[in-house]
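Q: What would this complex look like in 3D?
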Amino acid sequence: ILNVEQSPQSLHVQEGDSTNFTCSFPSSNFYALHWYRWETAKSPEALFVMTLNGDEKKKGRISATLNTKEGYSYLYIKGSQPEDSATYLCAFARGLNYGGSQGNLIFGKGTKLSVKP
Amino acid sequence: DAGVIQSPRHEVTEMGQEVTLRCKPISGHNSLFWYRQTMMRGLELLIYFNNNVPIDDSGMPEDRFSAKMPNASFSTLKIQPSEPRDSAVYFCASSIDYEIYNEQFFGPGTRLTVL
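A: Here is my prediction, written as structure tokens for the whole assembly.
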């Protein structure tokens, strides 16, 4: 059974704080790692898709790093704002021995971020 | 583009009834995914299609669940007969193709309640 773990489960920060959270995934047969942002009452929106060890991606105040050898990815938010409040999901795609991917994403349960003004 | 469209947004039904959820993917996207979201298990893939062909349905929980994609712009997920434990939010997502480094675009979801 493939497990994708996210920590912490929830996080409460003040506006202006910088924060980060972790996604852990199996380090063998890595293919891709996705980060999604999911606001309450909306649908998940893709933030990043990362495929290479050492990848770093950035979108505004949000950035992510990837370590495929040890099986983790960090998501960083610099200077959190109330509008950053959401659940952040990561999803892992496993590669197949003959190439290509398994074809499905395995999601973690998310980190729920609340930013207080 | 309107994004992925799902209907209905909310469905309340009684145990034993047939439920049909509908999805229209983004035009030009070749892959379509059906997910189920529950508190206990999070977001789980039920089935996905590529070019209208089911590729992997190993996530479909039981024979009571079936999905079809008769053409590139429409898919259905059917539960017959429905049970209270089927209550969840069902999401449809589409992507350019099934290669898993392509981001998936999610619809707004259908919240199903089976009484």
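A: To summarize the key features: The mean pLDDT of chain A is 90. The interface with chain B takes residues 31-32, 34, 42-46, 49, 51, 89, 91, 93, 100-110 of chain A (CB under 8 Å).
Q: Very helpful, thank you.
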